[in-house]
Amino acid sequence: MSPSYLLKLVTVGSASVGKTSMIIRYSTGTFREHYSPTLGTGFSYKKLQTNGNFVTLQIWDMGSQDFLERVRSNYYIGTQGVLIVFDVTSWESYNDVIEWKNEVDRNLEEPCPAILIGNKIDLAVDRVVSTEEGQMLASQMGMDYLETSVLMNNNVNEAFEMIAKKIIQSFEL
Known about the structure:
Elements: E1 4-12, H1 19-28, E2 41-50, E3 53-62, H2 69-75, E4 81-87, H3 91-95, H4 97-107, E5 114-119, H5 131-140, E6 144-147, H6 156-172
Parallel strand pairs: 1-3, 1-4, 4-5, 5-6
Antiparallel strand pairs: 2-3
């Protein structure tokens, strides 16, 4: 019989980078047209099978407002994987990645697998952060890098499958 896992993920990043939309796209297959900021946290579940393992992902959506940092700290408990998301059309969200990584590190008892996600690649004419810059930042922080378009549903499933595989691999070390 194949092993079964319940894995807790958190998604973090600046406001309006597409964290909630990414979770909705992955968990329901739909795209949310309107922007509504996450106040506090939310979560979704999604089942998948990867490398012969049955996995249930518990995906936490962390609100990004500064005043929520103290509240967010409680939701990191038990985290096994992290998706740090930025918007490739926003230098500000890219520059905030280091602060998000620092917050994650402050709130986890021990390091866990993390992936840096550059979202909104469908907005090519507005793009300011290159693939190479995203890869370089991810490499500096010891993470893999993946680019997504939630609107076009490019690499959304792959992002969650990638982090699930990384978490399961970390159990085997």
